[in-house]
Amino acid sequence: MNLTQRQQYLALAAAAAVALLVADRFVITPLTRAWKERSERIVQLRARVNEGRLLLDREPGLRARWQSMLTNLLPAEPSQAEARLLGAIERWAAVSQVTVTSVRPQWRLGAGDWTTLECRVDAAGSLAALTRLLYELERDPLAVKVDVLELTARDDTGSQLAMGLQVSALVSNTVQRTNPR
């Protein structure tokens, strides 16, 4: 079978096209996909390394803040914890000049070694006095957070308000405190 020169070129071109198709399908495309995935992974890893460096730079401050939090947890002994929280509430009320009408503490078991002491506080006073109470609560180093806050007017003008407040204080049963209050 004698092929003409033109047929030989066409056969060579067809073989080259098939070879390029096979090379593209099994070599070039997988390599470019792997290259893109690797590039994306490198970008992600660089971002994580930068986050780690920033975290390491902030380590002394974070450790000091954590130690402060551990120091200001309520004692694990229930009566001491309640006494400390009730004393703080009395202190906040005295500074803010509000009238505390009722305080109802209640214990909640948490996950693991953490327990919370929830306390429902009902207070009355002017808007300025109640905001001062909230300011004193948030400013205090005690590990307390406000869960629920309800305000209602006690008179027609709104000059006297009643506030229902639910706060949670954190108690750890296993953490050793170096400087308890």
TrEMBL record:
Gene3D superfamilies xref list: 3.30.70.60
Pfam families xrefs: T2SSM_b
Name recorded for this polypeptide: Type II secretion system protein M
Organism, as annotated: Limisphaera ngatamarikiensis
